[in-house]
Each structure stands twice: as structure tokens, then as C-alpha cells.
Design a protein that fits this description.
- By secondary structure, the protein is an alpha/beta fold.
- The chain has three domains: about 5-60, Orthogonal Bundle (434 Repressor (Amino-terminal Domain)), CATH 1.10.260.40; about 65-165 and about 295-320, Rossmann fold (3-Layer(aba) Sandwich); about 165-295, Rossmann fold, CATH 3.40.50.
- The protein has helices at about 5-15, 15-25, 30-45, 50-60, 70-75, 80-95, 110-120, 135-140, 165-180, 195-210, 225-240, 250-260, 295-310; strands at about 65-70, 100-105, 125-130, 150, 160-165, 185-190, 215-220, 245, 270-275, 290-295, 320, 325.
- α1 crosses α3 (about 30-45).
- The radius of gyration is 25 Å and the shape is elongated.
- The protein starts with 5 loop residues before the first helix and ends in a 5-residue tail after the last strand.
Length: about 325
């Protein structure tokens, strides 16, 4: 059967084609009784609006790109941050009948593909996630005059609206907690230093130790479990007397706990451990992991709302979500 047309709906309702068009496009210039007649005809005929034709008129695609600047093996790894952000952003967009398009940009070739795709007018806006310092996309996309927002403060100097969490404050709360527990030699496993999250959490750690006249003991990981284990072994070799470690995310903290057990260190008796993010696995480590609750779902939802506001001409003010210390047995 042929798909019902606007003309068929107009004939069934006894109104003009333009009246039907105004009703199905949500315009408010039609009286309620006429709207009811038109919608009854729409339902009786099973009419579905032609989205492509509507987009030609509105200059909107009703799609938003979620660009993750990581390779597929990182996005689909055991790090739940990515799935949480994708799920939360999708739910927010579905609520306003918009579609999320996931684009991975973990290589130079994929950077070019993403830029070409966005420049082709396939999406109304872009959300950037996991941007690194050398990532060319933030600057490239802002030149396309497409609304772009960043999940986290951009790692490069570019005028781009963003939603971030209080990484400095969260890290500082973790280190203050360890000091209050009487720990004296507190190390950290920092995240990648080409990412703002890694930089800010290291800054929070350093700020508190500087104020308490303690020296910093630092190793750097890449937010993976394996890098946390490697960094912990390095820290133990550099300072066998350390009695606490703050890891810049929970996966690295879990890797550190594994390395500590292998080295015969008891947690928290010999070495206290604090992570960051409060992923579900943190509740089930042995012992359960003290961590900083980082509201990724709330941050992703705020990112979507910021972008939707930009699409309607709204402000581009950054938005910061708060973090919270969650104390468990590991500290």
C-alpha cells in the first residue's frame, strides 16, 4: 500500500493541505477543534510525517553527534564511564525526539572522517568526550560553526562551552581524608597528563600535600587497570615506606590493590587506597574501595541540556557538577 500523503489527510479532514502541515509540524496557529479533526484523520489513515522533507524546511537533522576521542578497544573496554555517558546522553536526547550518532575518533584518519561528517550537515550539534591535548577536533569543529560542547574542560585553548566535575576539589577531598586517617607518605597514581581530568586531579593532590608540608610521590597511568598495577609497583620501588595511595580513577585503584596484594601489603593496614569515580565495581573489591563519587550520568545529561540550549540560541556558560567522598574499608 502507498504511504498516506498530506493531501489524503487533508481530504479526509476536509481542510487544506497547509492546515494539515501546520498541525503535524506542531504550529500553534490552528484552532483546537480543527487540530482534533486533523489528528483524527492522521490516526485513521496512519499518516507518518516525512522527516526528510521536514528537515529541508527546518534546516534541522534532529541528530547530534557524540564524538569520543578514543579508539574502539578503549571505549568498549571495562571502563564504565563511556557506557554511562553514552546511555545518559541518549536518554536525554530521546526525551526530545532527537537521535544520538556515536562517532569514534581515536586516530588521525578518524579525526578527518568526523570533521567531514559534521561539515556535511549530518548533525545539528556535537558533544566531545575524552579529548586529549593533541586532539585537533575541538579547534576544527569550532571553525565549522556547528554548536559544540565538551564533556570536561577542553584540553586545548579553544572557546567551547563545557560541562565538568570538580576534579580538583574531589582529589583534594581524597587526600585530606587520608591525612585525617593518620597517613604520612601519600602517593598518587595520576591519570594521563594530556587530559584535563588527569591534570586537575593531580593538582588537587599536590595542593593538599603542599599545604601540609608533605612531599608528592607520583606515578602516571592511563586510566586502565593494568596501568594502575604497573604504577603501584613503581611507587613501591621508589618509596617502600609509603602508607597510602590516591589513584585518579577506580580502575587504576583496583590495579594498584592487586599489585599491593602481590607485594604482601595489607589494605588498609599497611597501605590505604582511595580511588576516583565510584564505579559499581568499587563496592565489590576486597576490601571495598573508598572513592570519590563522580556523577558521570548527571554530567552527561547536563552536557545534552547545554547543547540543546545552544541550538535554541541559549547561553554558553560552563557548568560544574560537584563530587563527594564515599568512605569504604580500603582506607
Amino acid at each position: 500500500m502507498r504511504r498516506p500523503t498530506l493531501e489524503a489527510v487533508a481530504a479526509r479532514a476536509g481542510v487544506s493541505r497547509s492546515t494539515v502541515s501546520r498541525v503535524v509540524n506542531g504550529q500553534t496557529t490552528v484552532t483546537p477543534d480543527i487540530r482534533d479533526v486533523v489528528m483524527r484523520a492522521v490516526n485513521e489513515l496512519g499518516y507518518v510525517p516525512n522527516g526528510a522533507a521536514r528537515n529541508l524546511v527546518t534546516q534541522r537533522t534532529n541528530s547530534v553527534a557524540l564524538v569520543v576521542s578514543e579508539p574502539p578497544n578503549r571505549v568498549f573496554s571495562d571502563d564504565p564511564m563511556f557506557s554511562t555517558v553514552i546511555r545518559s546522553a541518549s536518554i536525554e536526547l530521546e526525551a526530545v525526539n532527537m537521535q544520538v550518532v556515536l562517532l569514534l575518533a581515536g586516530s588521525q584518519e578518524s579525526h578527518a572522517r568526523v570533521e567531514t561528517y559534521v561539515a556535511g550537515g549530518h548533525v545539528d550539534g556535537v558533544m566531545l568526550v575524552s579529548s586529549h591535548g593533541a586532539d585537533p577536533l575541538p579547534v576544527a569543529l569550532t571553525r565549522l560553526r556547528v554548536p559544540v560542547v565538551s564533556y570536561g574542560r577542553p584540553a586545548v585553548p579553544v572557546a567551547m562551552p563545557y560541562v565538568d566535575s570538580d576534579n580538583v576539589g574531589g582529589a583534594a577531598a581524597a587526600v585530606r581524608h587520608l591525612l585525617e586517617r593518620g597517613r604520612r607518605r601519600i602517593a598518587t597514581i595520576a591519570g594521563p597528563l594530556d587530559m584535563i581530568g588527569g591534570q586537575d586531579r593531580l593538582a588537587g593532590y599536590r595542593d593538599v600535600l603542599r599545604d601540609s608540608d608533605r612531599r608528592s610521590i607520583i606515578a602516571v597511568g592511563d586510566f586502565t587497570r593494568e596501568s594502575g598495577a604497573v604504577a603501584m609497583r613503581q611507587l613501591l620501588a621508589d618509596d617502600p615506606e609509603l602508607d597510602a595511595v590516591f589513584a585518579a580513577n577506580d580502575l587504576m585503584a583496583i590495579g594498584a590493590m592487586h599489585a599491593l596484594r602481590q607485594a604482601g601489603r595489607r589494605i588498609p593496614d599497611d597501605v590505604a587506597v582511595v580511588g576516583y569515580d565510584d564505579i559499581e565495581a568499587a563496592r565489590y573489591t576486597d576490601p571495598p574501595l573508598t572513592t570519590i563519587h563522580n556523577p558521570h550520568a548527571e554530567q552527561a545529561a547536563a552536557m545534552v541540556r547545554l547543547l540543546l540550549g545552544l541550538l535554541e540560541g541559549g547561553p554558553a556558560d560552563p557548568f560544574i557538577v560537584s563530587t563527594e567522598l564515599v568512605v569504604r574499608t580500603s582506607s
